[in-house]
Automatic annotation (TrEMBL):
<protein>
    <submittedName>
        <fullName>DUF1611 domain-containing protein</fullName>
    </submittedName>
</protein>
<dbReference type="InterPro" id="IPR035402">
    <property type="entry name" value="DgcN-like_N"/>
</dbReference>
<feature type="domain" description="D-glutamate N-acetyltransferase-like C-terminal">
    <location>
        <begin position="142"/>
        <end position="335"/>
    </location>
</feature>
<feature type="domain" description="D-glutamate N-acetyltransferase-like N-terminal">
    <location>
        <begin position="45"/>
        <end position="136"/>
    </location>
</feature>
<dbReference type="Pfam" id="PF17396">
    <property type="entry name" value="DUF1611_N"/>
</dbReference>
<dbReference type="InterPro" id="IPR027417">
    <property type="entry name" value="P-loop_NTPase"/>
</dbReference>
<dbReference type="Pfam" id="PF07755">
    <property type="entry name" value="DUF1611"/>
</dbReference>
<dbReference type="InterPro" id="IPR011669">
    <property type="entry name" value="DgcN-like"/>
</dbReference>
<dbReference type="InterPro" id="IPR035086">
    <property type="entry name" value="DgcN-like_C"/>
</dbReference>
Length: 346
């Protein structure tokens, strides 16, 4: 299967079913690629594969590469999105084991699989594929800031790994269920794996971020929506650049702020407190008006996975009253999500 994006770049083949590799991560947020595939493309996943010391599970059956291959798996997906996008030396033997079991390796990390000698040599010897998803197309222009036809929604957040992708997918599906013409526009490794195409925004030189976002969401019919997966956070100490370029280039008419209640610090950066939701709204409006003066906030998406159903419903209702806009959890859906969709489409 060869997939083409709207901007003419040819995506790499992704052989599936997948065995999801979680390495030895101990924080759920760093395994967001595995969880994203499990939640949104579960029919393509046969199991999970974990190194010694790993503490996170997707809930899929745990299995070695040989067992996964026997069950029809075609590739090992590196299901981790860690700081810096690196593949530690402690993972290499496990990935080599996957190649030796007859599986290809698919990765969305910044480091290229072929730059790791053991993987390159094993893949060459066995005739296996090393597939790097985080590869942007060539000749991306700089942004021009010109207004494009069609409508756009961008998910933004108070931090990384708290639901921007899930929210974008859930909203695009909810729009489609109402008969709205809509496309989900993936901007990160997991979203690209789910959608089959997109733009790896955090692998693009910063001067071209806005241009890449413009390519990702081109001119469209007046009633067509592009729902664009956000990246990073506008106040993130390390990743704010990609968030700002995506905001300016997307020119969103609507944005939805994603947040995880109870998270106190920026993930992986304990010295930095999480910003207030209201601060993100204010800053996104101020900066977003540079390329779309009509930008507005459609509401909020909360990751309430650590709460019970009743507690989550009560909390989101109170926060919606406090913030003055609908609050929903895309994984819980229901009337709260429908109110959020109403607010975005009004």
């Amino acid at each position: 299967m060869t997939i083409k994006t709207d901007f003419g770049a040819e995506a790499l083949t992704l052989p599936h079913p997948y065995l999801l590799f979680l390495g030895d991560v101990k924080h759920k947020g760093y395994a967001k690629t595995a969880f994203g595939l499990c939640d949104w493309a579960g029919e393509k996943c046969v199991g999970e594969y974990i190194c010694e010391g790993g503490e996170i599970t997707t809930g899929l059956p745990r299995m070695a590469p040989t067992e996964a291959a026997a069950k029809g798996a075609k590739s090992v997906i590196v299901g981790v999105a860690n700081s810096g996008g690196i593949i530690p030396s402690t993972w290499v033997a496990s990935l080599v084991e996957g190649l030796e079991a007859g599986l290809d390796i698919v990765s969305g990390m910044h480091v290229r699989l072929g730059d790791i000698p053991e993987l390159a040599e094993t893949a060459r010897r066995l005739g296996r594929q090393l597939v790097d998803v985080r590869t942007p197309p060539a000749n991306i222009p700089i942004g021009n800031g010109q207004k494009r036809s069609g409508k756009r929604l961008l998910t933004v957040g108070t931090d990384c790994a708290l639901g921007k992708k899930y929210t974008a997918i859930a909203l695009s599906r909810a729009f489609a269920a109402r008969g709205v013409q809509v496309d989900f526009r993936a901007t990160g490794q997991t979203g690209i794996m789910i959608a089959g195409g997109g733009m790896p925004m955090d692998a693009i030189v910063s001067d071209f971020e806005a241009g890449a976002a413009e390519l990702l969401s081109p001119d469209a019919a007046p009633d067509h929506w592009d729902v664009i997966e956000g990246q990073g956070a506008i106040l993130h100490p390390a990743y704010a650049a990609v968030s700002l370029g995506l905001l300016h280039g997307s020119q969103p008419d609507i944005f939805v702020v994603c947040h995880e209640p109870g998270r106190e610090n920026v993930i992986g950066m304990p010295g930095f407190k999480l910003p207030e939701i209201e601060e993100i709204v204010e800053l996104t409006l101020k900066l977003g008006r540079r390329t779309n003066p009509a930008i507005r906030c459609g509401g909020f998406s909360f990751n309430t996975s650590e709460m019970g159903e009743v507690e989550a419903a009560e909390f989101m209702t109170k926060e919606g009253e406090r913030l003055g806009l609908p609050v929903a959890d895309p994984m819980r859906g229901g009337e709260a999500l429908e109110r959020l969709v109403d607010s975005c489409l009004q």
